[in-house]
Each structure stands twice: as structure tokens, then as C-alpha cells.
Amino acid sequence: MKIQKNLRTLASKKKAEILSRFFKTGPGQYGEGDVFLGITVPQIRKTAKIFGDLELPQVKKLLRSKYHEERMAALLILVAQFKKGDDKVKKRVFDIYLSNTRHINNWDLIDLTAEHIIGKYLEDKPKILLYKLARSKSLWERRIAMLSTFTYIKAGRCEETLKIAQILLNDGHDLIHKAVGWMLREVGKRCSTAKEEAFLKEHYKKMPRTMLRYAIERFPEKTRLRYLKGQI
Length: 232
What we know:
This protein is mainly α.
């Protein structure tokens, strides 16, 4: 495909090595086996914009590439087509995303896209899917569930976020701890400080330390230290 040829002209072996280490692609690490071309996000965004009208079957094929940056380009094209598409296109994009979660297999790919496709598509629909994803054996599907709720936080609704966060309280993976803590912080910032604090007061003593640190990052120093010392 032309988009692949375009992206590969931008590749940098040195950057690829740096990205491979940053995204933990070694044996036993969360990104094990991922392959990088060494392209910056702004370059990928620019390329995705140029090829924004790529036919969905081709986008789907690109999403299954072994190269991380090609998958990111595919996902950014899906976001753009979802935003401008009619209901039929939105459903097709949603279905492609949901049926290819095994290829949406790193935190940056999820964080740039989940809210704009999964979250947005479900905005006026039942959220049963989010709870299913939150209970998935797949690390990436659990993160998709959490990040998809960012859509609702930005609209001033935090109920789904708090429910998903409660499901993930005892998750064993650091990337979920960070995602939940981040979304809890955004609840306080964009939706309701009172609701964030009520959630934390009930759960903070048993939530993972990283999750708590992310959630209270914007709190006044004295309050933050009281949470960390278990004195709330």
C-alpha cells in the first residue's frame, strides 16, 4: 500500500531501537514481540491525514501490520473516519476496532483512540460491552474499557468511570493501575472532585500504590501525603 511505502521512507533504525526499549518489547514484557520502524507520532499523524480516505478494508489490513507505527496510522484513520462518518460508517469502524483488539496491543494505541471510537459509539447506548472488556483476560481490552470512559468524563459524567474503576481495583498489571488512577484524576479535574474523593475514601487503602499516586497527583500536598500515609 502507498501509505506503507510512505511510512517506511520515514523510518529510523536508531529511533526504532529507542522505541522498542521504551515500549517494553523484550521477552516477558508487556510489549513483547512488537516491532517499530522508528517514526514519530507527529509524522504518523501527518501521514494518516494524507491517507485519511483509505478504504476501510485497506485500513483493516494496515491495522494487522507487524509494525507498531502502521497500526497507529490505521487507528488514527479509523478515528478520523468515525468522526466524519454517518451511522453506518461509525458502526463499521466500531466493529473493525472491536474485532481487532489483539492488534491494538500497546498503551499508546489505546490512549489515542479508545475514547473516540468505543467510548463515543456507546455514548447513547448501553455500556454492557465496557464491563465485559473490563473483565477480559486481555490487558489491552481492560485498558480499552477504562480509557473509553474518558468520553463521558469530558461530558461531565463520571458514573461509568467509577464503576469500571471499581472492577479494576484489584487488577495485577501496572498499566491498568496507571490507567485507572489517571481516569480517577480526570474525574476530579473535569467532572466532580467530591465524587473522586468519595471513591478514594472508600477504596484508597486497598488500591495499588501506583493507582493511588496517579489519582491524587493534583491534590494539595498536605492532602496527598495524608492519603499516602493512610490518614484520611
